[in-house]
């Protein structure tokens, strides 16, 4: 890649990160994910999934890096969110939407193995 193209790419990525467009670990909401969510939960919308992603970025990052939804099987996310809801100051609706975002995000691709973290 040419040097000026590299500078432009670097500047674009920096701007996207500054704007909050790129959140490490969290997958962007996709049309496939929205379709899966709307099919399973008729009241779910793309806007609610995006709001849940944003909430996940802000609430989870207080204690750890925001999760990659593929780190767990889809069925495990509701329990994970429920266990952490009080510490994250989530109300019932926020917790439900966050679990739905993570659950449908996990189903987008194959689950990745969880890397053991050392204390």
What is the element layout, followed by pairings?
Layout: H1 3-19, H2 31-40, H3 46-60, H4 77-84, H5 92-106
The biggest beta sheet is recorded as: none
Radius of gyration: 16 Å
| Strand element count | 0
Kindly, what is the distance between the CA atoms of the first and last residues, rounded to a whole number of angstroms? 40 Å
Q: How much β-strand is present in the residues?
A: under 5%
Q: Which structural class matches the secondary elements?
A: mainly alpha
Low-confidence stretches: 8-22, 110-119
- Sequence of secondary-structure elements: HHHHH
The number of helical runs is 5
Q: What would the principal axes of the Cα set say about the shape?
A: globular
If you average the pLDDT, what whole number results?
78
The share of residues in helices is 40-55%
Keywords:
single chain; 119 residues; mainly alpha; 5 helices; 55% helix; globular; disordered C terminus
């Amino acid at each position: 890649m040419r040097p000026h193209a590299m500078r432009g790419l670097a500047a674009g990525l920096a701007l996207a990160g500054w704007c909050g467009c790129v959140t490490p670990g969290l997958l962007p909401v996709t049309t496939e994910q929205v379709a899966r969510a709307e099919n399973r939960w008729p009241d779910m919308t793309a806007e609610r999934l995006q709001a849940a992603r944003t909430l996940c970025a802000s609430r989870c990052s207080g204690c750890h890096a925001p999760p990659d939804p593929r780190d767990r099987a889809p069925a495990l996310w509701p329990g994970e969110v429920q266990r952490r809801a009080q510490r994250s100051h989530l109300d019932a609706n926020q917790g439900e939407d966050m679990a739905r975002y993570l659950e449908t995000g996990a189903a987008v691709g194959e689950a990745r193995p969880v890397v053991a973290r050392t204390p």
